[in-house]
Each structure stands twice: as C-alpha cells, then as structure tokens.
C-alpha cells in the first residue's frame, strides 16, 4: 500500500526526512468515502431494566443503513460526546469518525509521517472508509477521548510497578484509581513485596502482598460502582516462588466459600446485592507467574524452593506437584488463579536490556515492561472473505499497514495517566493490533475450529498480520526514527523477529486458503527482517489478541477475538425495540461452501432454528458436524481444542492472547491440571480457565456446600439403624369443579409457553398446568405428565417451598432472557415457572428466604426501603389468585394475563452463560469476550476493548 519517499516538510528546522507515500485501498480519487454510503436516521431509546423507564434517549441519529440496530445503539450511548439534548451533542457517525480521524491526520502531517498533502488525504479517506464500513476499530479509549477536551488517552491496557516500600504501595493505589477513573484497566506483579514470613527492619513481621491486595480491591470496587464508562478491571500477579504463594492461590476460593455460606444463610449475595460488599478480592483477576524450573519439578514430582524477597535465599521447600494441584483446585472452585508462563514470555521479549516482563493487563493479552501502556485496534476478518470464499490477502496487507501507521501516530499525541507510564510508552511505543471474527470466518469457509485446517488458517492470518505490522514498523523507523529504547535492545529485538520468521517457516499448511496466506506471510517476514536490519523498528511490540468486547459489537462481529462461535442461534435487535431469533448467518454460507443445495440448506437451517444445534439435522453429513461446533451447547468444543488454537497463533504474536478455556461443570481438577500443563508445553504465554457453574451466579442454592453434604452423609452413616414406625398416609385434597385460576403467557430463551395455576377457594395453590410446543409432540406430553405430578403432589400436601428448592436454578435449554419484568433471566423453563409461582403464591417472608423478589421489591432495596412494606397494601387473597384486589381489578377467572414485554437485549450465548455477571449499566447478562465479559445490550465491558 505504501512506499517511502523523500521530501516531507522539515520539522523544527531539521533536515527534511522521508515520508510515507500512501496508496488507496478502498477509496477513489475525488470521491469522499461518506458519499458512497447510504445513510439513514434512527431513534435510540434505552430503557431501565428494573422498571422499564427510559434512561437514554437520542432521536434522529445518523448511521449507515447496513449498521445493525445494536451497533448503532452502542456507539450512540457510549461514544457520542456532548450532553444529551444540547446542540453540542454528536448525532452522526460522521461526526464521531471525523473527530477521531482528524486528530490522527493532523498529527501525522505535523510530525512528518506523510510524503505530501495528497498522501495525508489518502490516509484520512482510507481510515474513514475502514471505520465507517466496520473493517476495523480502535479500542474504546480512542472513541471516548480523542478530539475532545478530555486528556487524549488512547490506551486501554496498563501495567504498573510496586516495590517493597509503603510509599510505592500507596502510589499503586492512587495510580490504579486514576486509570480506573479513565475507563481503563491495569495489572501489577506484587512479588517484590516481602512475604508474611519475613521480618521488617524494625523487627516486626511483614504484612505480605495478600493483605495489601485487600485495600486495592476495596478501592477498585468503589471506583467501579461510581465509574461512568465501565467497571474497573485489574490483574494481580504473584511469582510461584513467593513464600505467600499458597495464600495467594486460595484467596478467592475461600471468599467463594464465604459467598455460598452467607447466601445459604439468607444474605443477599447477588451481584449488586447489599451484602455482596462483604466479599473481598473479587475485583481482580489473579494469576500465578510460573517458571520452567517449577513446571519441570511438577512433571517429575520434585521439590521447589520459595525464596525471600530481599535476599533471594530459599526459606521453604514445597512439593511442586502439590502446589500445582492447589492452583488447579482453586481454579476448579472459582476460576482463579490463571497461569502466566514467565520463561516463555521473556524468551519472546524484545527489550530485555531495559527490564523483565513481570505482569500483564487485566485480560492477559498485553505483556511488556512495567509502567507501560498499549493501545489496541482489531480487524474484522469476515470483511476480507470474498464472494468466492477466498481471503483477500492484498487488501488485508494494505489495511494492516494503515492501522499500524495510525496507531503509532496516536502515541505521538496521546496523554497518559502517570508520567512514568507516559515516559515508558513514548520510549517503546507498544502497539496491539489484533482481530475479531476468526470463529465466524472459519465456519463460513467450512473449517472446524478444532481442526488442523482451522488452526492452519488462524496461524497463517496471525503470522501475516504480525509480519506486515513489524515490516511497517521498520519502514516507519526509516521515516520518523526507531523507538528510543531500540539502540540498547537492537540485538534481542532482532532475535525475536527471527524467532517469529522461523515459526512462520515451520507453519504447516493444509488447504489452498491458508497456503496463499502463508506464502504472503513468508514474503512479509523476509522483507521485515531486511527493513529491520536497515532501519531498526519503530515499535517494541506490534500485535496481540484482545477480547474485542465493545468494539466487536461496534463492528457487528459474530465472534470476538480468537473465540469460536458460542451459539448457532442468535437474537437480533429490531428497529423500534424488541428482538427476533435468527440462525447465525454464517451457517448458510458454510453449507454452500460444503456443497449443499439450497433445499438442503433451508431444511438444515430450519432444524437449527428449532433445536439450536445440528445433531440429527436432515441431510447434514456426520463429517460436517464439527464445522458447526461452538464453545458451549450440544456439541461443545473440547477444552484442549481451545488450547491448541491458542498454540497455533501464539508464535506469531508479540503479546499474548485474551482467552478463557471453558470447561463443563463435570470437569475435574485433573482436567484443569492437564490444561495448565499442556499450555506450558505448547508455548502459550498465559492461560485462564472457567468451569461452568463454579461461581455463585444465582441468589439461591439447591443445597448446601459439598463439605456440608459430606458431613451429612458421614453423620447418617454413623447413626445406628432405627426402627421404622408406620405413620398415617397423607390424604388427597381434591380441587373443586370450579376454582379460581390465572393463565400466564411466558417466553424463556425464545421459547413460548403458557402456565395455568389454579387455587383452592379458601386459599392455597392446588394445580399447575403447562403448555409448550405443538400439540401431540413429545415435549407436550412430558409437560402434561410433569404438570399432573406437581398438581397431585400439591393436593397431597407437599409444601410449595419444597418444589421451589428443587426446581429453582435447574439448568437446561431453553434458557436465557424472559419477557417477565420480575424475572429477567431464567436458567430453564422450570426455573422460570417456579420463580413465577413463588412470586404469585408465597408471602414475602418465605420468598425472601429463597432469594426471590419482584422488580418492585428489588427497586425498593436499591432505594434503601423495606420491601416488606410493599406487601401491606396487597390483599393476601390476591396473591393466591383467589380474589381480585379491589383498588386494582384483576382479569376475570380463567383469563390470560398479558405480562408487559420489555425490549429484549438478548444475545447468542446468554442461554449458555448463566454464571456470567450482570451488566452494571443495564442489568443484562454479560457474555464472555476473551478473559473478560461484554454486555451486548449496552456495550459495557469488564476489561479491555
């Protein structure tokens, strides 16, 4: 796309330097990129998830007609600047892009990046075209800050440094607070702080890093609650040879036990609940930094020394395998800690003469020097899949050049939260180019995610992206100079470049698609080494794979980062509110690529729409099932499938990969040990796991903890056998021929149904009937039988609370968002049914013990009021549906109650991610995005984007 040419404008009296000669990619001379887009006006109205009130409204916003409703809503609510309702408020995507790109172009001109005015105009137009067409996106801080009166912070990821001094620890608290306030996240390694087993100079015992984590966690929780842009995100790392490592490993697992105990005792431990603040260490991701030495001792079952922080002497020896087991056990219990492989990270380090890499950002993809930052941008890979299903290699190369140029320019004008971070970032100019939609690209081209072919495509694309990035970085070094720290790190930097090139040479291609990409990658690496030897490099780091949470939604990506698809059925927002269920649009394209005719495609798509998976789909061959495997669901990708995909791309990345390896609830501690061990053997830099349902995601537990159950079983086994005493059998209390009832229509995860609940005239539920699916189907028969069983049980006197404890929180499909304002999420139809029954037929005191509240009661809790007071104005007979409330008539007996339907903000994987947190902004269930979470309702994230 570019060449270098002499003759740029001299800066500050210095001799003229070379400038970049730009070439067009997507635009035409004399035509502004906006003029080739069909624009339309829309209204963006966002409602409060608790009570349906409007919490955001901006009408007449302007977006390209091909942008989805969801993408337009997120950009309008998150990225448009100016007070709503004032003339200063941005109302068009044109204004937003112009605000950002204008700063990039002006800075590039001022600092001699371009050979001439025409080249600057091409840069400006190409950048605007790519952003407007969702070909790539900068990370969120760019959209928040660039071109505004706020500090021009462009980085999403920061790494801090903490020394073994109280002043340094307090500076850490302050620096984190400043970063969180700006809407970004940070990471830190606390291994320099003395352990609780070491002495202070005064003779006392040190507190240890875990104690200082408590204060930082409380600070992060406070700023998270008050932040306007998104939740605080942080990473805490501790080296495996730190004497307090065992306490660090078990910290969050112990807190999770506390959550369960308090919840089972009746405390409000739901996210945002009034009692959840008593839980500590929940605002950070924790990772252990393991060494090759430690991992080798794990393999052979040897001992490993824990070392004093000041002297480095071994003060305690532990069994390496036992310590590794504790890491896996804690991760099995609460998903923390993750692992960071220290020797691998530093073996690929471009600037070791400046210092070691000790930590990462919150999502683990940015690994570089302490007190540094990284700005991110991600490419939408699906935009380069042509109609003939070939990958557009030439344009991918040109766009990567454009993005790297723009990202480097941003460091020139950027502001930073601390002077130390600013100095390091300007001196080393770390960049983080990555991509999104890999999973969708693989499926659309007929590649299984967990296959040699899929991994070959991913590896080739990643190698090409990084090879072009460093080649462009070397060209920029020839134009505006190498990074300041390059001279002292030239040899190690060039050594890492050779390692990347060697990994590219060893890449094994499978098909024609990856072979063509790999061939171009080889050319780019060859040119990269040549240019780097001549000019050096402008950037100490170029690439990584971020979670692409909010910006993935901004680009209408089907999949985020390196992730596979999470579901074959998605929910699409509609203009004017609401949503509709649709089959993933990459599926028909994949079926065509696999050779299926239109009739077969329609039949398979219809089957997927009804069942949510491809198993037994009519006409679909067994060997093609794997193409449609997702992260969760009927055919979930095996955990090692995720690890192998990470390993296929890691050698071609400057940084690491934000990704969580999902494991089923049935996974064992041994399984997690195996994942962590294989991650090390396969050369990953960082790895995190998540076992489904390992964290407390709901306010009610079907039973006590595992230890409680073991105690009960042991107690029962120890008790002597007792004589069985015959008692009177219960008698059935039959329902009268005429009885009051209520019919409720409901929707759970897109599945519709009806529930009729009948009561005795003198109070008390006695009958429940459920209707779902088509008459005569298997499901209808099973639901009828279930209804009869429940009804007979009620009539024989089984307490309603007993059914609550058994069926609330039961998990199976369909699950997800409902249309009931009192019950926004349900883990299954049974979970919804019995929550609804409890709200309609149990008094407040009994429901409160079960953790079931109406929307009004939750709102009262938020206001600090007593929810029980709401019940004083309610007729108790009305709660049992046996009589109408006089002041507010109910529908007549036997009629259907139409509960209000609010706008759904459901996305593809909510039905599978019951343990994900609720969005702090809009209350929608978030979904995984790399190692973090993203809300598809409003675009908020729990980490970097």
From TrEMBL:
Gene3D superfamilies: 3.20.70.20. Belongs to the ribonucleoside diphosphate reductase class-2 family. The lineage of its organism: Bacteria, Bacillati, Actinomycetota, Actinomycetes, Streptosporangiales. GO terms for biological process: DNA biosynthetic process. Catalyzes the reduction of ribonucleotides to deoxyribonucleotides. May function to provide a pool of deoxyribonucleotide precursors for DNA repair during oxygen limitation and/or for immediate growth after restoration of oxygen. Residues 44-134 form the Ribonucleotide reductase class II vitamin B12-dependent N-terminal domain. NCBIfam families: NrdJ_Z, PRK06556.1. Its cofactor is adenosylcob(III)alamin. Residues 155-690 form the Ribonucleotide reductase large subunit C-terminal domain. GO terms for molecular function: cobalamin binding; cobalt ion binding; nucleotide binding; ribonucleoside-diphosphate reductase activity, thioredoxin disulfide as acceptor. It catalyses: a 2'-deoxyribonucleoside 5'-diphosphate + [thioredoxin]-disulfide + H2O = a ribonucleoside 5'-diphosphate + [thioredoxin]-dithiol. Its EC number is 1.17.4.1. This is Vitamin B12-dependent ribonucleotide reductase. The keyword Nucleotide-binding applies. It comes from the Bacteria. Residues 879-899 are annotated as: Disordered.
């Amino acid at each position: 796309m570019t060449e270098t040419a002499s003759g740029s404008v001299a800066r500050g009296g210095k001799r003229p330097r070379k400038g970049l000669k730009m070439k067009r990619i997507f635009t035409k001379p004399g035509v502004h990129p906006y003029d080739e887009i069909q624009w339309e006006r829309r209204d963006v109205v966002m409602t409060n998830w608790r009570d349906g009130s409007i919490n955001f409204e901006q009408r007449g916003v302007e977006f390209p007609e091909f942008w989805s409703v969801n993408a337009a809503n997120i950009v309008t609510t998150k990225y448009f600047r100016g007070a709503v309702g004032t003339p200063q408020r941005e109302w068009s995507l044109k204004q937003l892009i112009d605000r950002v790109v204008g700063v990039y172009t002006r800075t590039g001109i001022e600092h001699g990046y371009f050979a001439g005015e025409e080249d600057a105009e091409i840069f400006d137009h190409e950048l605007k075209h790519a952003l407007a067409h969702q070909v790539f996106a900068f990370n969120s801080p760019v959209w928040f800050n660039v071109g505004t009166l706020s500090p021009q912070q462009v980085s999403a990821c920061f790494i801090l440094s903490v020394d073994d001094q109280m002043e340094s620890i307090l500076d850490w608290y302050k620096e984190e607070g400043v970063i969180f306030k700006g809407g970004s996240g940070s990471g830190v390694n606390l291994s320099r702080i003395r352990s609780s087993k070491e002495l202070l100079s005064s003779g006392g015992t040190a507190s240890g890093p875990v104690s200082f984590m408590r204060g930082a966690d409380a600070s992060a929780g406070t700023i998270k609650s008050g932040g306007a842009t998104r939740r605080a995100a942080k990473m805490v790392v501790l080296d495996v040879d730190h004497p307090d490592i065992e306490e660090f490993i078990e910290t969050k697992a112990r807190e999770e036990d506390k959550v369960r105990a308090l919840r089972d005792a009746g405390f409000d431990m739901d996210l945002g609940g009034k009692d959840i603040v008593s839980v500590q260490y929940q605002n950070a991701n924790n990772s252990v930094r393991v060494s090759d030495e430690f991992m080798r001792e794990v393999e052979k079952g040897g001992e490993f020394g824990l070392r004093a922080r000041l002297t480095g002497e071994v003060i305690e020896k532990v069994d390496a395998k036992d310590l590794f087991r504790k890491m896996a056990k804690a991760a099995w219990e609460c998903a923390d800690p993750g692992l960071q492989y220290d020797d691998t990270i530093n073996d690929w380090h471009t600037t070791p003469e400046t210092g070691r890499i000790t930590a990462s950002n919150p999502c683990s993809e940015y690994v570089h020097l302490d007190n540094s930052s990284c700005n991110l941008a991600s490419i939408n890979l699906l935009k380069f899949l042509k109609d003939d299903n070939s990958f557009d290699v030439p344009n991918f190369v040109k766009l990567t050049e454009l993005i790297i140029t723009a990202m480097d320019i941003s460091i020139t004008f950027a502001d930073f939260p601390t002077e130390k971070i600013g100095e390091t970032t300007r001196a080393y100019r770390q960049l983080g180019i990555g991509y999104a939609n890999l999973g969708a690209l693989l499926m659309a081209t007929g590649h299984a995610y967990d296959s040699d072919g899929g991994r070959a495509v991913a590896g080739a694309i990643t190698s090409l992206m990084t090879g072009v990035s460093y080649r462009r970085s070397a060209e920029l070094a020839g134009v505006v100079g190498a990074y300041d720290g390059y001279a002292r790190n030239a040899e190690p930097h060039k050594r890492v470049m050779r390692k990347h090139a060697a990994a590219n040479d060893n890449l094994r291609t499978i098909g024609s698609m990856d072979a063509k990409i790999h061939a171009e990658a080889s050319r780019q690496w060859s040119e990269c080494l040549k240019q780097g030897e001549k000019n050096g490099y402008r950037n100490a780091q170029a690439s990584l794979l971020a979670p692409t949470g909010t910006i993935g939604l901004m680009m209408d990506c089907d999949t985020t980062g390196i992730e596979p698809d999470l579901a074959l059925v998605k929910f699409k927002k509609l203009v004017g509110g609401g949503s509709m269920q649709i089959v993933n649009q990459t599926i028909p394209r994949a079926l065509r690529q696999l050779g299926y005719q239109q009739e077969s495609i329609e039949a398979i798509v219809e089957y997927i729409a009804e069942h949510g998976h491809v198993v037994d789909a009519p006409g679909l061959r067994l060997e093609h099932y794997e193409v449609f495997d997702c992260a969760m669901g009927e055919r979930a990708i095996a955990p090692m499938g995720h690890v192998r995909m990470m390993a296929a791309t890691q050698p071609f990345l400057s940084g690491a990969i934000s990704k969580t390896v999902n494991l089923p609830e049935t996974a064992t501690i041994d399984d997690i040990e195996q994942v962590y061990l294989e991650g090390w053997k396969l050369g990953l830099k960082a790895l995190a796991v998540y076992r489904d349902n390992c964290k407390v995601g709901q306010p009610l537990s079907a039973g006590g903890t595992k230890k409680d159950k073991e105690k009960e079983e042991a107690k029962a086994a120890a008790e002597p056998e007792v004589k069985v005493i015959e008692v009177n059998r219960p008698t059935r209390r039959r329902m009268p021929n005429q009885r009051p009832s209520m019919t409720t229509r409901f929707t759970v995860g897109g599945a519709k149904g009806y529930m009729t609940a009948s009561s005795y005239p003198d109070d008390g539920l006695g009958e429940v009937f459920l209707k779902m699916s088509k008459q005569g189907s298997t499901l209808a028969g099973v639901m009828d039988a279930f209804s009869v069983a429940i009804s007979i049980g009620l009539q024989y006197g089984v307490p309603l609370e007993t059914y609550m404890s058994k069926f609330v929180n039961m998990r199976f499909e369909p699950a997800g968002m409902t249309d009931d304002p009192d019950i926004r999420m349900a883990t299954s139809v049974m979970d919804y049914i019995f929550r609804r029954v409890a709200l309609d037929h149990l008094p407040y005191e009994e429901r409160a013990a079960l953790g079931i509240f109406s929307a009004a009661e939750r709102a009262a809790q938020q206001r600090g009021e007593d929810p029980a007071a709401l019940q004083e104005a309610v007729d108790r007979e009305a709660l049992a549906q046996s009589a109408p409330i006089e002041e507010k008539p109910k529908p007549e007996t036997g009629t259907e109650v139409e509960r209000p339907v609010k706008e759904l903000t459901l996305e593809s994987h909510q039905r599978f991610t019951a343990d994900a947190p609720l969005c702090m902004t809009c209350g929608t269930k978030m979904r995984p995005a790399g190692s973090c979470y993203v809300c598809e309702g409003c675009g908020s994230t729990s980490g970097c984007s």
